[in-house]
Amino acid sequence: MKIAMLDPSLFTGRYDDGLCAGLAQAGADVTLLGRPMRATDAILPQGYAYAPRFFRHSEALRDRLGEGRAFRLAKAAEYGLTCALGNLDAMTGADVTHVQWLPLAPADRLMLDRLKGRTALVHTVHNADAYHADSGLQGRGYRALLDRFDALIVHGDTTRGALVGQGVDPARIHVTPHPPMRLAPATPADLATIPDPAAPRILFFGTIRPYKGVDLLVEACLSLWRVGHPFELVLAGKPFMDVAPILDPVHAAGFGDRLITDFGFLTEPRLDAHMAKADLMVFPYRHIDSSGAFLSALHHGKAMVTSDAGMFGTLPDGVTTRVPAGNAAALGQALLPLIESAAIRQAAGARARAYGDIMGNWKDMALATMDIYRQVLRA
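The structure assignment produced for this chain is given below.
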């Protein structure tokens, strides 16, 4: 079976890599179609091919243009032309075209219309609310695109229920649980660049967006610092919002020495180094379907604090310390015992690691996905 896997902007490269390698191991001929690799990417294709099919010209201008408006406009223009007029042979020559992300709905519609009837179309819906209401034009019209696919894959009943509520035919929705992931491991050099903790260290990592609740985490930490609890907070990742209003109160209150920021597109080994040196990790999301960041951190065996949104609300009791989404006061109360007691942290971390060990693997995920492909082709 020939599979074209699409993640044009490489939004979830680690996920793509795990699935493509698993599909190849199961006997499929797989090509992952994305953008040109960056220094921060860590994909080393095993058994499958990688083709930089999208954003080749705009990525070449990235260093010159930076990450601002000009670069985003260049990317949108190039992607629109690719979808409307570009060569689609890599997809039309495949039995199945499996789209992981649809980065610009108005352009994606043009590409899907050109592909319809020429290859089976499958889409993994990572978030039922496209880009968590943060998308603007990027996600406008996303819901209508779902009707163009022969099958939709989701990672849990939360997403399935949301899609059914949006009018999607349940018969087209397939649930395949998201396996844990491992980032490229930190090297000694990566570990050396991250300062050792001087007090219990809380880590938030990944892209920084409004729905992820970093403001709630900072508010909770400030409340604890003000009453005398010593600990560090690390924010590591690329901000896609103005973080100054969130961080300024920390410095104004005199706690800037307890805040460590490592902003930007970080390599996987650098993120792994941050996880290795953290004492606990926090995922204070206002809403989420499934979290790749959480699933990539389980094997570190660190205590986890999460909201109760999406997949977090379905975890077995004890895997994480859960708080109501959007509640900074409850978050602070949940953090306190973990900050104060190494023994409580270690016990919580052991439960997180044990859960990750029984969650499944990419072989199982690939076999389930192949079965979905076969159902679609038979139909």
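Interim note for the steering committee: DSSP finds 16 helices and 13 strands in the chain. Residues 338 and 344 are 6 Å apart (CA to CA).
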